[in-house]
C-alpha cells in the first residue's frame, strides 16, 4: 500500500512544481514513486524535461510519471463494466457500445482519476503516489467520493426498504432477477454480491482517506493575500472530507513570517526554482512521513458523548449544524459532511454545540 500525497492551493502558486519536487525528493530517498498528473497539456513534459504519456514512464531511478488522460481511462473502465455485465446478465446489452465512442461528461475526469489512483495503489508497485490534480474543491470532492457515495447508499437503501414501493415489489425481485441474471438472487436486494462488493470498496476508501499514513495533503501558497485566503479556505474544506493537512509550503519565500493564521501547521518556506535545478526545492520540502502529527479532522469521544470537528479557516457564522436524518450534518466551505456516529451514540439528538479553538464541539 502506498502513501497518496497531493497539494492544494490557488492556481498559479506552484502546486505542480511542488508535486514534481516532492516526487523527486521521495525517489531520491529510495522510495518507488509514481507522479500522476491530471494536466494533459505539454506543460508537464516541459517542466520534467522528459516525455510523458497515459502509461507510466520511468524518467529517473525510482520515479515514474503518468498523465491521467480521461479518454484512455474511460475506455479501460468501460471494458471492465462490460465484463461485469457479462458476468451478471444473461443477455448483456452494453456489448454494442464501444469505449472509443464515449464522450467525457462533467465530473467524469475526477471519478476516473480517483479510480486510477485506486488501481495504481492496489498494484503494489509503488511506495508513494504523488497526485497533481486541480488542487481545489474538485480535488476535495474527488477524495470525498467514498464517504459521500456511502452515505447515499445507506440512506436511500433504508428509505427504499421502508417505503410502500419497496415493500410492494420485494416479493417480485427474486423471480425477475432469476430470469435476467446469471446468479441466484435471494433476500434483500441490497445484500447481493455486487452490492456487498461495492459497500466493501466504499468502506475501504473511507478508511484510507481518514488515515494520514495513507492519504495526506499539503497547502501551497505564496505571500499574496488572495493565495493565503484560498489556502485557509481549502484547509477547512479538507476537514469536511476527512483529509489530513500536513503543513504549508510557502512558495517563493525565504522565511515563514506573517502566517500565524495557519497555526498549528508547520510552515515550510520554499525558494524559487532556478532553471532545471530542483535540488534547493527538494531540500526545502518537509519530511512527508511526519504528516500523522497534524491535527486530525474528526475525533469522537464516546464517554463524553462529544464529537470534535477540526474546522480551521471558518468561524461559527460559516458553519451550519443540522440533524434532519439519523446522522449529524455539518455544512462548511460548500461541503456537507454526514457524521455516522458509533453504535453507543447512534440515535441521540444533539443537545448543544460550540466553536472553540477552530473546533466545532458537538454534544449528544
Automatic annotation (TrEMBL):
Gene3D superfamilies: 2.60.40.790, P-loop containing nucleotide triphosphate hydrolases (3.40.50.300)
Annotated ArsA HSP20-like domain residues: 307-363
Residue intervals of the ArsA/GET3 Anion-transporting ATPase-like domain: 4-252
Source superkingdom: Bacteria
Pfam families in alphabetical order: ArsA_ATPase (PF02374), ArsA_HSP20 (PF17886)
PANTHER family cross-referenced by the UniProt entry: OS02G0711200 PROTEIN (PTHR43868), P-LOOP CONTAINING NUCLEOSIDE TRIPHOSPHATE HYDROLASES SUPERFAMILY PROTEIN (PTHR43868:SF1)
Sequence similarity: Belongs to the arsA ATPase family.
Protein name (record): ArsA family ATPase
